[in-house]
């Protein structure tokens, strides 16, 4: 696809022929036009009919915001403990601003190019087949690794609740089975119902944690007899490796941007997408700042990892019990979305994509099961998986959550009618700056992650593959 056709944000793609041979205008597809009765023609899904197949364009903006929030909630106050209050807060706010811009660009790019459904489609539009494979693999790998981390988090919760009632691998298997069942729900509109439950669970758990650390006698990791005091600081003199790893954690916590392509692609009115992004990012940032600062203020250096165990054995069980649905839903989203990417790629331009045919179901369930199985294997077979997730986040997080979106804006707007205006020049400078910052965080974060992996291996702080050991900590 030539750059000249799609170079301007105001340019409309040429008319295309859908799977049934009908001429369609892709510029109208994003509005979910109904040219024949109740049949919707979409640039990705083709002809949609509620009675003959799932409606992949039925997601409202409020439910979209819930899904966007659920792909990101999960950051603890680690960055504050490493950098101190002021630098930690600044890092969270700066990353939030940059990622919010990236999320906004996803929506404008989708409106300009309705045929785009995932980052792989962006890669094909900009870089041809090679670009599609590079961005597609980076996108799939990051999502699948996060799903694996979600399965481990689910096992941590069950270990904490049951007091390590059985082998940890068994708990991961339980999470994988539940994950497949819920991830198989065909549309994000229906999954958003589960998303509400997950969001409520996560929010209730972290609010309970914040209240508990404020009223408890002492944190679970603090000395249980004698004097204790939380060691909090306005700013800390952290090593470069510790500082860059803390920054990478914040970037990784906001790294839901690749999922936003799928979310806007299934919205009823894609022009409402910006409202969902603003709602999402305002909510997530407020939670990160308020909960992070409160917990760090009362716990200080005695924060545990994961943070839900900071308030003692009983509250640890309570917090994990409340968080359990949210941990599962997070895993569901990071399985459903990459599975949907493979599903769409296999069946695109086929009538089976949006119709309830045997081929549709066989391909869809196969994509979900295989994707979950790979997440399970990656999570259980690699003894330093947590450090590996950090490495993947550092190596791929900025690339697919900041740099790609900045380049997308430059590619779309380079020949814009607004070219040469002060606003255009300022936005060009901003996006180029984001790309440069992205390279710095990518290189430095990768270095920090490699150092952390090497240190873990040297100290013997790695588990064995498919270990039955308790992974919830001793408190």
From TrEMBL:
GO molecular function: L-amino acid transmembrane transporter activity
Domain of life: Eukaryota
Keywords: Membrane, Transmembrane, Transmembrane helix
Intracellular or extracellular location(s): Membrane
Pfam family, one: Aa_trans
Membrane-spanning ranges: 78-101, 161-181, 193-215, 243-264, 276-298, 318-337, 358-382, 388-411, 432-453
Matches recorded under InterPro entries: AA_transpt_TM
Keyword hit for Transmembrane helix: yes
Keyword hit for Cytoplasm: no
Cellular component GO terms held in the UniProt record: membrane
Membrane topology, record value: Multi-pass membrane protein
Location of the Amino acid transporter transmembrane domain: 58-450
Family membership noted in the UniProt record: Belongs to the amino acid/polyamine transporter 2 family.
UniProt-recorded name of the protein: Amino acid transporter transmembrane domain-containing protein
């Amino acid at each position: 696809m030539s750059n000249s056709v799609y170079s301007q944000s105001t340019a409309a793609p040429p008319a295309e022929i859908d799977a049934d041979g009908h001429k369609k205008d892709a510029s109208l597809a994003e509005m979910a036009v109904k040219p024949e009765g109740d049949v919707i023609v979409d640039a990705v899904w083709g002809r949609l009919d509620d009675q003959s197949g799932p409606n992949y364009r039925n997601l409202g903006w409020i439910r979209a915001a819930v899904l966007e929030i659920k792909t990101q909630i999960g950051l603890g106050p680690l960055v504050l403990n490493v950098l101190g209050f002021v630098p930690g807060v600044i890092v969270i706010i700066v990353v939030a601003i940059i990622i919010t811009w990236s999320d906004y660009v996803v929506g404008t790019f989708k409106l300009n190019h309705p045929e785009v459904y995932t980052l792989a489609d962006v890669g094909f539009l900009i870089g041809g087949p090679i670009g599609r494979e590079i961005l597609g693999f980076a996108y799939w790998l990051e999502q699948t690794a996060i799903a694996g981390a979600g399965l481990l988090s689910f096992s941590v919760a069950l270990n904490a609740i049951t007091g390590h009632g059985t082998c940890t691998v068994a708990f991961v298997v339980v999470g994988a089975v539940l994950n497949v069942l819920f991830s198989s729900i065909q549309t994000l509109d229906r999954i958003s119902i589960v998303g509400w439950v997950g969001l409520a669970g996560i929010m209730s758990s972290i609010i309970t944690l914040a209240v508990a650390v404020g009223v408890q006698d002492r944190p679970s990791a603090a000395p249980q007899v004698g004097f204790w005091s939380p060691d909090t600081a306005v700013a800390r003199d952290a090593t470069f490796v510790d500082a860059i790893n803390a920054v990478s954690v914040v970037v990784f916590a906001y790294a839901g941007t690749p999922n936003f392509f799928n979310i806007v692609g299934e919205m009823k009115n894609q022009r409402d997408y910006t409202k969902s992004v603003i709602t999402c990012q305002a909510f997530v940032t407020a939670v990160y700042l308020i909960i992070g600062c409160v917990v760090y203020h009362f716990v200080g250096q005695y924060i545990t990892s994961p943070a839900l165990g900071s308030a003692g054995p009983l509250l640890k069980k309570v917090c994990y019990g409340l968080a359990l649905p949210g941990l599962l839903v997070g895993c569901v989203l990071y399985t459903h979305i990459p599975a949907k990417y493979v599903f769409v790629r296999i069946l695109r331009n086929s009538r089976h994509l949006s119709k309830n045919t045997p081929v549709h179901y066989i391909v869809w369930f196969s994509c979900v099961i295989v994707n979950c199985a790979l997440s399970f294997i990656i999570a259980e077979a690699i003894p330093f998986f947590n450090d590996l997730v950090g490495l993947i986040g550092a190596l791929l997080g900025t690339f697919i959550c900041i740099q790609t979106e900045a380049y997308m804006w430059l590619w779309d707007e380079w020949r814009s009618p607004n070219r040469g205006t002060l606003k255009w020049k300022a936005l060009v400078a901003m996006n180029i700056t984001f790309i440069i910052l992205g390279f710095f965080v990518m290189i430095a974060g990768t270095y920090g992650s490699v150092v952390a992996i090497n240190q873990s291996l040297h100290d013997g702080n790695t588990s064995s593959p498919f270990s039955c050991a308790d992974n919830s900590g001793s408190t």
